[in-house]
Amino acid sequence: MDIKERIRRSPPPPPTPQAAAPAPGHPRGRKGRVAVLPLSVAALVACVVLLLLLSGGSAARRGGQFLDADPATARRPSGDGRGGLHQPRPRDGGHGTMESSKLQSDKLIGGLLAPGFDEQSCLSRYQSALYRKESPHLLSTYLLERLREHEVLQKKCGPHTESYKKAIEQLKSGQDIEVGDCTYLVWISYSGLGNRILTITSAFVYAILTSRVLLVDGDKGTADLFCEPFPETSWLLPSDFPVNLFKNLNIGSPESYGKMLKTANIHSDGSFKGPTPAFIYLHLAHDYDDYDKHFFCEHSQQHLQRIPWLILRSDNYFVPSLFLIPAYQEELMRLFPQKDAVFHHLGRYLFHPTNAVWGLITRYYDSYLARADEKLGIQIRVFDTETGPFQHVLDQVLSCTLKENLLPEVNAQQPIVSARKVRSKVVLITSLNSGYYERIRTMYWEHPTSNGEIISFHQPSHEEHQDSDKKMHNMKAWAEIYLLSLSDVMVTSAWSTFGYVAQGLSGLKTWLMFKPENHTAPNPPCRQVMSMEPCFHAPPFYDCKARRGTDTGKLVPHVRHCEDMSWGLKLVDTDEW
């Protein structure tokens, strides 16, 4: 509504005695016209006051926007119990009402998240909508129904409930276990952060398919990184879990499902020699053998239904092979009609940065990334024992970004290039080494871009070496994954689970840089991925029905080999070859 319309709709001032209607027979002569003058003056005064109020309100909003621009000063009042964590900057040019409306309408991510959490205990859960664009990947109503059902199961059977205590007592007895209403899948913390995020997601998919309660090992700072995903309960495995030395279970352990098959402790009908075990260990890590891989056969799933406790160790995103188990195919299709959005949806459902990590994310984003017209993320992961930076890796990064027009060329002939409309682009680089960032930044500092575009480069950290056992190292890694996922365009590195997670959270089909061989940049340097799904690095190549080896990347059109690993498997959203 413009100012004229506001004035037109404003109520008229009350009539004055001078403006009263003339007495009958009184001519409307000179006195009548003079009597109207005070009314005109009053209306004029009202207009002036209204204009001042409107301009003052705009100035106040502009002033609020200016004050909030500096993240160092944009903090909540002291005493809020949040360590000075600042609120997100307005995303609507400073109009707080629009920001509040967006937060209220988007904070549940289209129904993906459940309401009712204590918002202050995990600010990122509902504030992420202010930083992340709305996902174009639609959710199925069936997935939402199953998530709500699973939340009820987690609450009913989770730690410290009567059902959990009963299940623990049965587990301690170790003999003739009966499967009750509550069965469990325990995830063992293993490998680096990216692998842990992918394996928790895989475990959660399996938990939904088998109606098991998911409990995660709190080792390596799980609680320092992620908020609780389920309302009114905890997914953290209690410290008094009775399976002694369960973290030492491995491929050769007698409790391993593969070992049981190998030693014929399980009959073909699924019965066990001797009493039914209290639990079974599932070894699905990269070094698992052919017997362990029988987990992905339908007859094995029938065996495992009889076991109330399953303990899982994995460093793989094994969801693609779940899509190949006949008993689960229909259910998975209903849950994920867009088959390449499994991790995208579940990653945003499960993994919410804790307040400490959210502070790292929001402070960096508001300081360096928020104001750019476009955000480009570049993730550089080098699998080499020697110390970098390497020239061939730098050549590959530049070749990919320039060839695909993700970065503009530099003009080495002119000191300044002017453009009619100057656009700003911010480039976020993540790498263990700072050398690539410094060289690319220097190149664009010493020379103007050919199109006049203004580009800034930023790298939050350079830890030099991966150290997955250190709390702050993991917190920074999780913050950088999340920051990458806020990019408009992204370049990632082959084989990197760090990149897979950022790609999946973003919902983007990123540009994937191929793994260099013999210290030579690949040609082509990169390609756009078929889907945003992570790659299963160590899938089984076994036809369970025919009981012989087969190419599992050629069984169904929506499970194919990965771009960066010819033997890996990934989900794609297609029903045709």
UniProtKB/TrEMBL annotation:
Keywords for this protein: Cell wall biogenesis/degradation, Glycoprotein, Glycosyltransferase, Golgi apparatus, Membrane, Transferase, Transmembrane, Transmembrane helix
Cited Pfam families: XG_FTase (PF03254)
GO cellular component, one term: Golgi cisterna membrane
Region (Disordered): 1-30, 63-101
Compartments where found: Golgi apparatus, Golgi stack membrane
TM segment ranges: 34-54
The keyword Transmembrane belongs to this UniProt entry's keyword annotation: yes
Keyword Glycosyltransferase: yes
Membrane topology: Single-pass type II membrane protein
Single GO biological process annotation from the record: xyloglucan biosynthetic process
Enzyme Commission code(s) on record: 2.4.1.-
InterPro entries: XG_FTase (IPR004938)
Major subcellular location class: Golgi
Source organism superkingdom: Eukaryota
Example GO molecular function: galactoside 2-alpha-L-fucosyltransferase activity
Family, similarity comment: Belongs to the glycosyltransferase 37 family.
Function of the protein: May be involved in cell wall biosynthesis.
Protein name, per record: Fucosyltransferase
Protein species of origin: Panicum virgatum (Blackwell switchgrass)
Source species taxonomy: Eukaryota, Viridiplantae, Streptophyta, Embryophyta, Tracheophyta
